[in-house]
Design a protein that fits this description.
5-stranded mixed barrel; single chain; alpha+beta; 31% helix
Length: 145
């Protein structure tokens, strides 16, 4: 009985290892697209501006509670950000784009002279739920770079 459990574990374990590697590739990709990856909270009302292509730009203040990648000096500071999203319907709006929402942001520096100076690095993945396991993985991957 002991050996059958051990053999079963040895057969299943490689599948989980491969799955983690695939996930690491995805997280590495979004880390590479980002100048700043942070966890924190939206602390102001969110204003929406629609650009010439019809893309919503949600402008708000974001209080950084943890820096995963980027300038550690920004921890415990508030920055102005632009959350850009592809949206057609009301259902497309991300539920975390509102005051007092805690979230994980993948940000890049905006073009010089733009205000705010930080914008989401990806229209789809730029704002995420701050899953503790994802944050741990991102920190591990950021340190490996």
């Amino acid at each position: 009985m002991k050996y059958s459990v051990l053999i079963l574990a040895l057969l299943i374990l490689p599948a989980f290892i491969c799955f983690a590697d695939t996930s690491d590739d995805t997280l590495n990709f979004y880390l590479s697209k980002s100048d700043l990856v942070v966890v924190g909270k939206i602390v102001s009302e969110v204003g929406a501006v629609i650009d010439e292509l019809g893309v919503p730009n949600y402008i708000c203040d974001f209080e950084i509670q943890d820096v995963i990648k980027g300038d550690e000096g920004l921890k415990d500071r508030t920055i102005k950000i632009n959350i850009m999203r592809f949206e057609i319907d009301k259902e497309d709006k991300h539920p975390f784009i509102k005051k007092d929402s805690k979230c994980l942001l993948f940000l890049k520096k905006a073009n010089e002279g733009n205000t705010p100076a930080w914008e989401t690095a990806d229209f789809w993945f730029g704002i995420q739920h701050p899953f503790p396991t994802m944050i741990k993985s991102l920190k591990r991957l950021a340190k490996e770079k």
